[in-house]
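Posting here for the record, re: zinc ion.
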Amino acid sequence: MTHISDVRLRPVLDSRGNKTVEADVLTEDGGFGRAAAPSGASTGEHEAIELPAEESIEKTTEHALPHLVGEVDAGDQRAVDGALYEADGSENFSNIGANSAVAISMAAAKAGADATGVALYKHLGGAFRGSNFPIPFGNVIGGGEHAKDATDIQEFLAAPVGAPTVADAVFANAELHGTVGDILDERGIGAGKGDEGAWAPPISDSEAFEIMEEAVTRVSESVGFEIRFGLDVAAAEMYEDGAYQYSDGEKTTEEQIEYMADLIEEYNLVYVEDPMDENDYEGTAKLTEAVSDHDTLICGDDLFVTNVSRLQNGIEAGAGNSILIKPNQIGSLSDAFDAIELAVENEYKTVISHRSGETEDTTIAHLAVATDAAYIKTGAVAGERTAKLNELMRIAEGVA
Ligand code: PGA
Ligand code: ZN
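Prediction output follows.
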């Protein structure tokens, strides 16, 4: 039996140096799983509730562990996640904290996989199909909430759409990150890095577009396949007093829609995440319609928060054609699967994503393969990002 015999929780460091929750799940038959919760900085206002790590651990130990230990099977994900909800008693894990909930949910999946001796991506329901491997987006220039005095747009993402293998894609993104560094050097621009390892130069968005175009051209030529790029605008972070606040002035909703459509046209963007405020289904729908003759993914992150009812609203409104999936945004793997299922049924592409605050945990690499996601967004460099990318390559090789 893969009955849960013990759950251990502890505070560990995330990549920003903050405390987060790590969970170990052990089963009666010797299965073991360990996972840690990531944490956002540009969090959506509709996300599940994260509590301070120690408070979450204390409350989870008191209220949730009695519902898990000796009670449920680690291999039965619905039962594990159901027990977490029952113990919490709210819809958004506001009592025990979504950080402990998601850590336990992911650790239980790993324990279930370990107990049965299969790789996590297989345990999560995926048959590995090489031709459908997720394409990694690489965050190479960024600002917003992830770095001060840098671009207004939060992330400029490399998308190696023509890469023959996942390893080619991973290495192309890293090369692109390096090339952006070279171009910044050539222009005499000193730059630090933001929370996800992207360059965070003190430049305007329009200069960032120029640099991305140049870097993509150089690296495409060097690797011999097509690379495009995309954005995470994280527009909710700019939306204040009914307008989008850019460094060089504000834009109304109509102006923002037009600006986004123009950028998509001018740079042949393959992906635009959260182009509008997190409550603006209507504006997102207008933009989706306006660019429908392009192959651009219009993706909801803060808009949908991995939540089936918010995604359902979006589907009904025609807002976007893609959803970002962050398990910690909703608190459990079962919820993430439900959101993926609804997305797939409605032909919304899925993008499995890290958070700006991360750990070495690699669950999302397995989740992306298991669910046949179109893309995975997990940075380009930095150890907590490369942990996922390296795991993705191991999965592709069949040795994860
Ligand atoms: P976050 O940013 O993890 O800080 O929320 C990532 C994103 O917006 O996609
Ligand atoms: Zn985002």
